[in-house]
Amino acid sequence: MKEYVTHAIIQIGTFKKFDGFKTKEGIYVMSQTQTAETVGENKQNVSDFLRSKAFKTIWGEGFTSQTFEVEDSTQLIGQPRINGLPLKIVIIYWNYRSYRGNKEAYKILSVLALDSLEDHFRHAFGETATMEERRQRIDAYVQELEERLNAANETIAQQELELRQSWEEYDVQQSYQDEYDRQLREHGINPWAVPNTEDEHL
């Protein structure tokens, strides 16, 4: 028996846009393909993760995605048949990719966390924000994150350059030392021998 889902476009500021789905039981899911593509990975990467020891350590057991048919696929970004993942699985995967250095996963998780936290604060203070205002805040935060990540990358690149230069200078000095030692040995002198000393008598 086929399982069907309804469809809507999910817009995270102007930063991310992907298909969202809702099952008959009211569970929100994403396709396995777009779960991966949203953070610059491929579908196989998600499949491998769901079978991995890392996932089983977090989840407690393996997980097999369920196949769904999309009822109305007129505005669909992806395919009309999906392997659906509950959002809690999506978040675990994105967290893992972020931990492994995936900057897109880091950015989307940071954006979603800030948006959710600010929404809780607004609720506590009796304030509201339109979806457009929230999207503008998201876009501004994404730009800030990208600037900080770019600055961090530049710092790392500069440190790597300085380290390479230091090693190159060391190699040059070492080559001079090796040549000096070689010439001493050719003249019967051990460059690393401890010189003989006689006790001085006062």
Report on the architecture of this protein.
With 202 residues, the protein is an alpha+beta fold. It has six helices and five strands, in the order E-E-E-H-H-H-E-E-H-H-H. It has helices spanning 32-37, 43-50, 53-59, 87-99, 103-124, 131-186; strands spanning 4-12, 16-23, 28-31, 66-70, 81-86. Strands 1-2-3-5-4 form a five-stranded mixed beta barrel. A hairpin with a 3-residue loop joins strand 1 (4-12) and strand 2 (16-23). The mean pLDDT is 88.
Comma- or semicolon-separated keywords:
202 residues; alpha+beta; five-stranded mixed barrel
Structural class: alpha+beta
> What is the arithmetic mean of pLDDT?
88
**Largest beta sheet, briefly?**
5 strands, mixed, barrel
Strand order of the largest sheet: 1-2-3-5-4
From N to C, what is the helix and strand string? EEEHHHEEHHH
Number of helices: 6
Distance, first to last CA: 106 Å
Show unreliable segments. Answer: none
Tertiary shape:
elongated
Helical fraction: 55-70%
Summary, kept brief:
This protein has one domain.
Q: How are the SSEs placed, and which strands pair?
A:
Elements: E1 4-12, E2 16-23, E3 28-31, H1 32-37, H2 43-50, H3 53-59, E4 66-70, E5 81-86, H4 87-99, H5 103-124, H6 131-186
Parallel strand pairs: 1-4
Antiparallel strand pairs: 1-2, 2-3, 3-5, 4-5
Helix pairs in contact: 4-5, 5-6
